[in-house]
Prior knowledge:
Bound molecules: 5'-O-[(R)-(carboxyoxy)(hydroxy)phosphoryl]adenosine, zinc ion
Number of domains: 2
Distance between the termini: 34 Å
Order of helices and strands: EEEHHEHEHEEEHHHHEHEHH
Amino acid sequence: MIVLGIETSCDETSLAIYRSAQQNKKPSILASVVSSQINIHSPFGGVVPEIASRNHIIKLEPLLKELLDKTKLSLKEIDLIGVTNRPGLIGALFTGLAFAKALGYALKKPVIGINHLLGHTLSAELIYEELYPPYFSLIISGGHTHLFFVDNCYNFSLIAKTVDDALGEAFDKVSKMLNLGYPGGPHIEKLASNGNSTSIPMPIAMENSQNLSFSGLKTYIKLLVNKNCYKPEDIAASFQFTVAKTLFKKIIINRKKHNIKKLIISGGVAANNYIKNYLREQLENIELYIPPPRLCTDNAEMIAYAAFKLFGKRNFIGLAESAYDKLPSMFY
Ligand code: KG4
Ligand code: ZN
């Protein structure tokens, strides 16, 4: 089966083709193309939804051509289309969805709407071939900081979540306070590598709760920055260290309650090497599955693969199907 994945939920226009196992060939991603809008949004210090939608529309068709050139496939060879239909910026989601529906209609091929968080979770399965649910999935991205239990039919149950900011959002805001660029994560990580991570003690919010909170830490850092007497690299390093410690603590608290043995950590913040290494070193007796940075941030590979995994449910979408900026209530 040849599956086309389309991802336009935020500021990356991404398309990828997944090919399932064939006689002598292992399943694999045949190619993936991404057009990042970082340079377009960075002067605004964040994603401007209207601009994101307009750029997706411009990029989708040329990216599809590029993908077909790379894979030497023709449109007719596509068997299935997967498209992110929730959650995300609604206008941005609509562009990918409309493109997917038009292609599906023209090619007479089924289209499956993919939950972006299922995509982030499954990005780990693309790398770890022996990984199957049930498992736990911690998603740390620009829009989410949520821990789920995923059963063997890929049904999600919420275990814990941030009560305020998502972790990626906190990285982006702290980056802005330090006059670094957007998106904040990679800038903070780079600056932090020159700083002392234990130089500025920072609080862990709701320390004994299963849930997370980052808005207090953000305010704390704002006060430090305003004092003008700390080195930005020490602030960045101490922030990153506090985040790593927080995640560690929360995983331990939730492990006690839910007997977590297999844990996927994905989403943009999981691309952070410092956090990844800290968790790998500190967490014992837990199987950790963290995809490489390319698959942690938004990508269409995870969407193509998710569509393949969901094909058996035959839950295809029709032309009247909409996109949704939020997830259904069971996710919150
Ligand atoms: O998963 P993602 O690409 O998009 C969403 O679904 O939100 O995550 C984007 C977030 C941004 O907030 C960005 O600052 C953060 O991931 N991020 C990082 C790193 N790379 C991206 N955070 C920390 N360290 C990184 N290296
Ligand atoms: Zn994402």
